[in-house]
Amino acid sequence: MINYDSFLSRRGLDMQGSAIRRIGALSAGIPDMISFAPGYPDPAVTPWADFREIASGLLSGSDSEVLQYGPTRGHAPLLDAVTSILAERGIRASREELLVTTGSQQALDLAARVLCDPGDVVIVELPTYTGALAAFRDAQAELVGVRQDADGINLEDLEAVVKRERRAGKRVGCLYVVPNFQNPAGLLMGLEKRRRLLETASRLDLLLVEDDPYGALYFDDADAPLTRPIKAADDDGRVLYLSSFSKTLAAGFRVAWIAAPAPLVAKFDVAKQAADLCSGALDQRMVYEAWKRGVLAAGVPRLRAHYRHKRETIERAMRATLDGVLSWRTPRGGFFILASLPEDLNGEDLLQPAIAERVVFVAGAPFFVDGSGRNTIRLSFSLPAPDRIVEGVNRLARVIRQALERR
Amino acid sequence: MINYDSFLSRRGLDMQGSAIRRIGALSAGIPDMISFAPGYPDPAVTPWADFREIASGLLSGSDSEVLQYGPTRGHAPLLDAVTSILAERGIRASREELLVTTGSQQALDLAARVLCDPGDVVIVELPTYTGALAAFRDAQAELVGVRQDADGINLEDLEAVVKRERRAGKRVGCLYVVPNFQNPAGLLMGLEKRRRLLETASRLDLLLVEDDPYGALYFDDADAPLTRPIKAADDDGRVLYLSSFSKTLAAGFRVAWIAAPAPLVAKFDVAKQAADLCSGALDQRMVYEAWKRGVLAAGVPRLRAHYRHKRETIERAMRATLDGVLSWRTPRGGFFILASLPEDLNGEDLLQPAIAERVVFVAGAPFFVDGSGRNTIRLSFSLPAPDRIVEGVNRLARVIRQALERR
User: Fold this and answer.
1) Domain A4-46+300-406, what architecture?
2) CA triple A78-A82-A84, angle to 5 deg
3) The CATH number of domain B4-45+300-406 is 3.40.50.720
4) Is A348 exposed, middle or buried (0-12, 13-18, 19+ CB in 10 A)?
5) Parallel, antiparallel, or unpaired for β A359-360 and A34-35?
6) Confidence of residue A17 (pLDDT cuts 50, 70, 90)
7) CATH 3.40.640.10 fits B49-295, yes or no
8) Under DSSP, is residue B177 helix (H, G, I), strand (E, B) or coil?
9) Of B9, B105, B117, the CB nearest to A10
10) Nearest CA to B185 among B134, B223, B135, B128?
11) Is the N end or the C end of chain A the one with fewer CB atoms within 10 Å?
């Protein structure tokens, strides 16, 4: 029997699976399970008929490129569509500043490859998205967290952390932020905070990796101007802006993009050649056609209403059953609520009893790189139907009340 | 203006684009260009009507998972289909030994991440596939070449190289081989050579990365038993076997797989979570349905005849116009001929005059990690129609004859 450990690279030895994916495996296949775990878009609002019609046209055989290898940068018409989408968000990006990626996860991976040597420090929010943590960890970067206030990252803490790490001899090159309806905390970074963050990044000479999968999905207590990307004010070329069609069209296409200064995009292009040569040809065309035919534009307002209703449903149910037990900030868009349990409860400890009650969530701790957040849980309200949300919260309330009684 | 170099990782600084992709960019958009450059499958033999029907069924909306995020390992029915395909090739693989990848390029990338530390030696054939070189280089591995004979890798040279590198203190963990109709040399590794290679790998304690995108595409001067994978005899669990649907169904789906010992696949799974979470959901189902409905099985014999005819066409044209000038080994399958020019001609030098004549190929040198092969060119005969192949060879002959006259 071969001992494979001797063949593994250091990062191969270090690799740990995603907590979210592990929960998925644990709870999969159990009948009547209600899952608040994955940040999945709701297929009930997928424009199936449009996609069926688009696919039928694309697969007529009249365009031989539809199922062929394509350019690493992405399907050219899709790149131009992205330019238009970005313009609506206040961002100017030429073709040389764009690359289509196989989901935003790949954009994170490419950024980590191109920017991080082993031991380099990457600054992240407390808490932050675990997929980004996975990508930076895979590059053997060291992750250091910065506190968040209600309006986003705390700039005094950011400055202190960067200076402390640099004094310790660390290379600190980039900061990863999710300003719009952050995963997992649901926070919306304030406009003034965005302006000052860019100033601070400039003063500290940091690159900003701005991840924006949820910006279009604001609810009626927010609006488009409040979600204006930091990249829109990026005169220096300091911001790498990531966004995606996964939450607004369909996640299964694996089509996202990165907008960044041309010299960096040239590197991402080379890194992507090594990673997967090119993203799916049919997928990119499906997305492009959905944009061109107005399916995306028509769908997004519906998505806002759809997910807003789910947020209201889950908050109402939480208030009804867990008032004074759970505390949370109301997300003004996106898919997530990060709820705090009483200090002495651990989200991880609730998972097995929750699965026994046929409800599941993600424990908050893996989102916090400093080991805090053990008493938090992330509830994604995007996927379950409203009646299932209510029933799921009822089950969760039973689990939490039992844990409180046992302590 | 920001100097981005100071933000780049060492591998970011080192990154160089693919020679093949660069040629593609140089020659793209020139009217009447005949390209022998990319190893693209011919869309003329794509089963468009089948795919159209499959897509229409999948996108009915009845299965809400079709456009959703999916398991990192891959769509479960597709994994079972791969088990059947592998069984036909003499390979037994359970679900725990399989992972779907976003094209074989991703399998190479995952292998490089999981197995290679910076400075580790990876052994490759002379010449070998540049995509594999890109993946291993991205992991900052050092690539060391081993000579090939007509029946594949030279085992005496392999042993000498491994021992030399280890004496020099290098970690030498794996060997990358393409036994079936190798890209770029078109070689078919002999069965006895395969057996002895596995023995040698065992004795030297090497893992084998066996890349097999072309095995099903043998011509009438070969047959299935001659393409039997090395993995079929892998009792030790020493072989990582890569294969793909890109050359037999469609490259645009980006659906391929890796079969390897379960402990390594568990690591690839984690690495893939960081790389792109999961491969395309629709793409995997399109491929699965094409397999299930017999589209793949019915298509492959047609592909063999189709590409064999193209090989005959290009060889006949080459013999007619370049006899005694070019030399090459007849490929018994696959997409490629590696032709040698007279010793004092450089393939790279012919590219500009060739593009001026509206024909293009790939210079051979980038496929050779030892700096040799400067007088070789790779001609891919898979994509152009037969009459274009003949015309392309005529143009190439003019370019080469002019170069010979000028020297």
Assistant:
1) Alpha-Beta Complex (3.90)
2) 115
3) no
4) middle
5) parallel
6) confident
7) yes
8) strand
9) B117
10) B128
11) N
- d(CA B174, CA B404) in angstroms, rounded, equals 41
**3-class SS of residue A45:** helix
Report the residue of chain B nearest A8, measured CA to CA: B115
For A34, A157, A159, A359, the CA distances from A31, given in Å and listed in that order, are 9, 46, 49, 11
Determine which of A16, A42, A72, A102 to mutate to test the interface with B (most B C-beta atoms within 10 Å). Answer: A102
Residues B161-196 pLDDT 10s? 999 999 999 999 899 999 999 999 999 999 999 999
Show me where the domains of chain B are located. Answer: 4-45+300-406, 49-295
Per-residue pLDDT tens for A26-85? 787 899 999 999 999 999 999 999 999 999 999 999 999 999 999 999 999 999 999 999
Complex confidence, ipTM: 0.96
- Identify the closest residue of chain B to A136 by CA–CA distance: B274
CA distance B91 to chain A (A): 18
pLDDT tens readout for residues A167-205: 999 999 899 999 999 999 999 999 999 999 999 999 999
Q: Which of A62, A104, A113, A202 to mutate to test the interface with B (most CBs of B within 10 A)?
A: A113
Element (H, E) at A29: none
Q: What share of chain A is helix, strand, coil (3-state, %, to 5)?
A: 50, 15, 35
Q: E strand or H helix at A104, and its extent?
A: helix A103-115
